[in-house]
Write a structure and sequence with these properties.
Elements lengths: L19 H22 L2 H8 L3 H7 L3 H12 L12 H10 L3 H20 L1 H29 L12 H16 L5 H15 L3
Helix pairs in contact: 1-2, 1-4, 1-6, 4-7, 5-9, 8-9
Amino acid sequence: MTADTSPTGPPSPRRTRLTPERAAELHEAVIDLLCEVGYEGLTMDAVAARTRSSKATLYRQWKGKPQLVASALRHHKPIKVADIDTGTLRGDLLALSAVADPARMEQDMALMRGLGHAVHTNPDLNRALREELIEPETAEMRRLLQRAVDRGELAPDTPAVEFVTHMMLGAFVVRPLIEDRPADPDYLTRFVEAALLPALGL
């Protein structure tokens, strides 16, 4: 008869799925704290205290602070590129512009200030943002543009195609820096009509 060599300690904790409402509450708390204290000042303790949860719960859902912050930013987006398909490239780009809410843009300016230094100096945060937010949205933008090519709207060798994501992101980021005002829907619509569409030959 062989000895029982199975482990006698407690089983490893399983990652339990949060309800959408609870996840949204946690993400909202992270966004608020980022605006208030910046990335460096945000702690898992602070998130746990504000949401009346335990740090163990947070670490079961996310590996650490960089992953939690990246997840919160992804869910903070008012719309995902994957959700947009109006049937024309012009309509798709204008739809992206129309979702910019002025109040939300003010909050996003505070978020950029809170994240700015850390994005460039914290490799874990940089990696988490790329994996959770930047790479998925960039891939969806490529698919959006490919649909326009497939419909015959856009020539596949249009030089500006590879810069569309950069230009759209730049429109959101640069206006607050230059004019100290958020990139509201009117500004973004004018940007798309006057700069982006002509660059694409449309």
